[in-house]
User: What shape does this take?
Amino acid sequence: MENLVATLTNTQFLVAVLAAVAAAAVVFSIGATFFSGGSQMRQRIRRVALEREKMRAEEMARLRGGSGSTDQQTRTIRQAAGRDYMKNVVERFSLEKAFMDDSTAEKLSRAGYRGQAAMTTYLFLRFVTPVALFVIAFAYLSLVVFADKPLWLNAVYALGIGLIGAYLPSVLLKNQTVKRQKSIKRSWPDALDLVLLCVEAGMSVEHALKRVAKEIGAQSIELSEEMTLTTAELSFLEDRTRAFENLGRRTGLDNVKSVMQALIQAERHGTSVGSALRVMAEEGREARMMEAEKKAASLPPMLTVPLIVFFLPVLFIIILSPAMIRVFANSFINGGG
Assistant: This one.
């Protein structure tokens, strides 16, 4: 026992333990960064592959006349029944007047949810989520966590959780919008270059967007959907400029809106579409380079905290350990003498 206590209080042992812990923390922090980045990349590639297979299956089913299996038809019937139930709740409680404004449809379209069914689901969740969270929280707090507390106190806590749940659908919608815009923004410069190549090769804007929508689907499903929808709008809308305006409004990105404005001006004044796209493509590449330089310039401030927390303690231990060992050894010799 005395040997164990002496070992634990030994200065050299403590210095070695601290150095090992600091080195392990450095290795773990660096390794976790690489492993998390690789796993995210693999998950994103897997999601893109699954989405492509889903789109291909839907397109094949549409070309075959909409014939599907019994399970698919059953799921469709169940989904329709669920939407009817939500629609009845929305109409009965007049949720459109309570939760819907002029920008709600635009927010849903930016998140990738279109149509009246998406609007009904969103309004239904805005109404049901706080009530459901209040009931669940009140039951859990009263029966498990605070069983000895008064019911009114548990009700107050559950009411706070319910108020938080009132904003939960909006937060989730905002999160989905940010993810979708990030995917579109990352792939938009490449798509614009491809559109420029197709237009300069002699294609029309409609055929160029249709071709690029197929090619860019491997990189961004969201951008492929938006460009496909724009191609469809160009084919049936009387005013072609509305299709370009709708694309900029659905994405909500400034670089997409600027390109659409250039196409609208070229459409109205009869100028060269290729020249406008060439200028916008050059500006897009410059913007991408500036963003990369901005990220590179922000690395030193981001690395300051890891350097202070992980690298500097190890460096101090390595530098000061020989001197400390010598000082303690001399003091031990002098004290023993």
